[in-house]
Amino acid sequence: MVRSSYETYLYPGPVEVSVPFPPHLTYPSTEHAGTPTPPGARGATRIETDLAGQPDVQAEMMLLLGRIYRELGVYDRARPLLERSLDLRQTRFGPEDVQAASVMAELGRLWLDMGRPEDAEQLQRETLTLRRQLLGPNHPDVGKTLRDLAMVLTSRGTYDEAETLQREALALNQREFDPEHAEVASDLEGLQSILRARGQSEAAVVAARQVLVIRQKVLGPDHLEAATAMNNLAILHRERWELAEAERLYREVLAFDLRRLGEVHPYTATVSNNLAFVLRDRGQYDDAERLFRSALDIDHRLYGREHPNVATVLNNLAGVLSAKGDYDESERRSREALAMFRRVYGDDSWRIGMVQGAIAGVLSARRDPGAEALYREASAGLEKSLTPANPTLEPVLIGLGHHLTVRGAADQAEPLLRRALRTRLSRLGENHPRTAEAQVRLGACLAALGQWDEALTLLTAGHARLRDEPHFRSESREAERVLSTFPSAAR
């Protein structure tokens, strides 16, 4: 089971992953919680030398060490171990080997974590075919591979097939196990991830609550996996803008982590980061900044200066600094994150466009003429790596649209802002503040174009929703300002 989201990480399944979602971090798998950091390259060398002549043991140890490195985000060490493990298994037993399938599954998870979903999909499909052939269609390992493949497809926006496969896995495990078995809970967790990606938040909450009930009943309320399920439920409440409930759940998880795991632990960093987003959304910027800095300090102590989690929290911290008007540090932190993401994932990752969009927002706030070019570069990168309706695109479309409107190019802004509003309405509904944000930006654009009637409707609705939301104070004020400029005949 995976704790989802460093609210800027991905949403996993038993990895949240699922698709790129803006700001969350994933909890590492609890399967190896408490496992000490593995030895460096020396450990891999010793497996080769000390276990020479024992290829089966070598392959198993390399699989174990490679899995741990993957879960720690040390991908450059995980990859050679897993590839060597697979080579050993296939050399000794041929391509149709059950243990080789286990290594293939782990390699598929690595490719997904590294931002290579095409490779991940291919490998998971091969694993599924192999396991069905060797183990039969109803074996629990087939269910695990269905879940892994569903996660990959979710990350690629292939939601229909992803949900079909995940429900197949759930049905398989419900036939094989009792209703409160760990595999059933993991399948429900995977299903909640897909439903979340599809914008079906009510159904996702139902699935998440089922996971929490199972974990608490079977393992007890004071168990790591129960806390993990609570964290994942809190993410959904935050996305539904049920901030009081999200904060309550996060604080309960944070208290558990501090009590049971200590301050310097990946889970403590994760929930600190996630709680910071709720506080930011409630307009409590100082408290949010403090928690982001705490999460960053923990990650530095755990992983050093260079790690995907470090880059994620750097960019999250940059966001709240920008909201406070501290543009200098905000830009510096985002540029640190951008450089780190490039080194870890390469230039084609969606993370690059996400951070470029954040930097462009700071440049736009400063009236820097370089903002438009960076917004367009971010948009092009995200369009290339994500599906058209992916929510990670929305802030860039809205940011660029607003920037163009302010600079007198409202005709260019209109299609971008209409697209963003359309996806937010579909995903979040009419009453969500982020939908209202898009309404205000589009309304201001249409007012600049003289389309008074539609602009009035959008600005009035957006302002009514945002006027009591501290985090959207600037959008609320913009709605008031633009409405005050309307010709009397248009009011």
How does this structure look, described?
- There is one protein chain.
- The chain is an all-alpha fold.
- Among the domains are: 305-387, Serine Threonine Protein Phosphatase 5, Tetratricopeptide repeat; 395-491, Alpha Horseshoe (Serine Threonine Protein Phosphatase 5, Tetratricopeptide repeat), CATH 1.25.40.10.
- Helix content is 74%, strand content 0%.
- The longest helix is centred in the first third of the chain and has 19 residues, at 75-93.
- The chain is globular.
- The chain starts with 6 loop residues before the first strand and ends in a 7-residue tail after the last helix.
- Mean pLDDT is 90; it is low at 7-26 and 28-37.
Biggest β-sheet description: none
Instruction: Indicate the low-confidence ranges by residue numbers.
Output: 7-26, 28-37
Distance between the termini: 54 Å
Structural class: mainly alpha
Count of discrete alpha- or pi-helical segments spanning 4 or more residues: 22
Question: Which topology of the domain at 395-491 does CATH recognise?
Answer: Serine Threonine Protein Phosphatase 5, Tetratricopeptide repeat
Q: Which class of the domain at 395-491 in CATH terms?
A: Mainly Alpha
Element-by-element helix/strand order: EHHHHHHHHHHHHHHHHHHHHHH
* Shape field: globular
CATH architecture of the domain at 395-491: Alpha Horseshoe
**Helix amount:** over 70%
CATH superfamily of the domain at 395-491: Tetratricopeptide repeat domain
The percent range for strand residues is under 5%
* Rg (CA only): 23 Å
Rounded mean pLDDT is 90
Give the total of beta strands: 1
